[in-house]
Design brief:
about 400 residues, alpha+beta
């Protein structure tokens, strides 16, 4: 066992021992329940981060609904090359993995239903929070940090794709264990012996799952994180470009606002209907149903807005288009990577469109005009390229037409 793995196992043992020993010495059930809940929330956040950190490109598309209403959002970053580091101690994240985080909304709907059902069945906890909470929370943070560090040191993220690094069932499992544990602890008498017994009982499946995440003990990983495809590097011309045209961040910002508001309404409506139905069928209580609807209306819009703004911004805000004598290159200045290359000799025509971007009401009133026109690059034997957020569309079109090898 490597030193890092041994340290991780030690943190896992210390966390579970802290909970059991705390319960043994008259710790309140509320404290244990809060730790279980915080651990589950932190675990879900870590699982989603690990999906972003996977370095290989997924060979299968993200999960889609029959209506495919998320497909335009996915397409903004699906082919992104490169990664960005959000903190020095954590592995870099790849924007192209964002769709494989967003597609977990289906799993989150199922998780929300479990949480709502557990919430409706809770009994009031006796007493308040105890002294075990602080060391337990610190150990929870240390555990999830060490899992990421250990996996990064072992090179697992370098050989994994977003679909293979962590399966969706891990989110469901950790949520179900936490919800059942909290529900059971709420109904456990305040006697230390019974609180200790309940804590030890639910620490067993929790400990087994944690050992599996560490890849050690009698519960090793039951899946292979390795998978996906490596991307061949793009060849770009030597020397400086003849012209460079950037995307207009004001246009990208307006684009993000438009899409964020649209998806916020859609997501809030869907989550409200889903949780309201679960609450009615699961509890039959008007109070619980109103709480479920209120939670959906409060949680869905900010989650949707932040997610969509991040996707649109990472997809377009830092792109610039470099015109060389023999190629048109899309380059992302944040990721410091070329995104695609189109040889000039493959371009049959380039034109500035006459349909400005904008958000209209019945096609008549521009309530959110983007005030720009797209450049359409038509290719011989390939898909056309549509550039919709340029700061100077005419300048790019003129530069491409002026290329020595342009038709």
């Amino acid at each position: 066992m490597r030193r890092g793995t041994a340290g991780l196992v030690g943190v896992v043992l210390a966390l579970n021992a802290t909970l059991v020993v705390g319960a043994l010495f008259s710790e309140r059930a509320l404290t244990i329940a809060v730790v279980f809940a915080l651990d589950a929330v932190a675990g879900i956040a870590r699982l989603l981060y690990e999906r972003l950190a996977a370095e290989r490109a997924s060979t299968a598309p993200p999960a889609m609904t029959p209506l495919r209403f998320l497909e335009p959002l996915y397409e903004m970053v699906a082919d992104k090359r490169g990664s960005v580091r959000v903190a020095a101690r954590f592995p870099s994240v790849s924007p192209r993995n964002l769709p494989y985080v967003v597609d977990q909304w289906v799993v989150c709907f199922a998780v929300f239903s479990v949480v709502v059902l557990a919430w409706t069945a809770l009994e009031p906890f006796e007493g308040g929070l105890g002294p075990t909470l602080l060391p337990a929370v610190l150990l929870v943070a240390a555990k999830h940090d060490r899992i990421v560090q250990t996996w990064a040191a072992a090179g697992r993220y370098a050989t994994a794709s977003a679909r293979t690094v962590r399966p969706s069932r891990d989110i469901v499992y950790s949520t179900v264990v936490a919800c059942v544990a909290v529900w059971s602890l709420s109904r456990t008498p305040s006697d230390p012996a019974q609180v200790t017994a309940a804590t030890a009982l639910f620490c067993l499946p929790k400990f087994a799952f944690e050992c599996r995440e560490c890849g050690v003990g009698p519960w090793p990983l039951t899946f292979d994180p390795a998978g996906g495809a490596t991307l061949d590097p793009l060849s770009i011309p030597d020397g400086p470009p003849r012209a460079t045209v950037q995307n207009d961040r004001g246009v990208v910002r307006a684009w993000a606002v438009h899409d964020a508001l649209s998806y916020a309404v859609l997501f809030a409506t869907s989550l409200t209907g889903f949780l309201g139905t679960v609450a009615v069928l699961g509890s039959g209580s008007l109070r619980v149903t109103l709480w479920a609807v209120a939670i959906a209306l409060l949680a869905a819009p900010p989650v949707a807005v932040l997610t969509v703004v991040a996707v649109v911004w990472l997809g377009h805000a830092n792109e610039e288009y470099r015109v060389y004598d023999d190629a048109l290159v899309a380059y992302d200045s944040l990721l410091d990577e070329p995104q695609w290359v189109v040889p000039v000799e493959d371009i049959s025509s380039v034109s500035v469109g006459d349909d400005p971007l904008g958000w209209t009401i019945l096609g008549l009133v521009h309530v959110l005009p983007f005030e720009t026109y797209p450049v359409v690059v038509e290719r011989e034997g390939g898909d056309d390229v549509r550039l919709s957020a340029l700061a100077d569309p005419a300048a790019l079109a003129s530069a491409v037409r002026a290329s020595p090898r342009s038709r």
